[in-house]
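discrete fold record:
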Amino acid sequence: MTAAHTDRADHRPAADPSVDGLSVSPGQPSAPAEQRGLTTIPASVVGRIAEQVASECTGVGGAAGGMLGVGARRDFDSRPSATCDLYGTVAVLRLDVGVAFPVDLTATCRSLRQHVRYRVHELTGVEVGRLDIEISWLNPAAATRGALK
């Protein structure tokens, strides 16, 4: 009996690495990268990744609960919402976020934009060509709330 054969039903024979005339060496790919296929990531997945990545930024949150935006509460533990359109390997993202206030909104958006662009590319290989950020709500700090009344 050889290593590739067994009489137990729960074990499968080892695959022969030289099937179809290709020999495989340990640590070497079986074929050049351009011949191994293509990994496709749907736009909705890139959007969900952008949501998660945006939630990693301090002072940025999303809306939680509600139906069609009615009854939603502002929550820094929720992910912001994102939509994505893919054009080849370039993504166009739109983020809807809430931001803690008072902060420098320009610096916060610049930091958020940099972080999302870098992490989405790092995780998916997709370049973020355009990133629109909509700040749909602000959450004033407790000390500021009394001053606003």
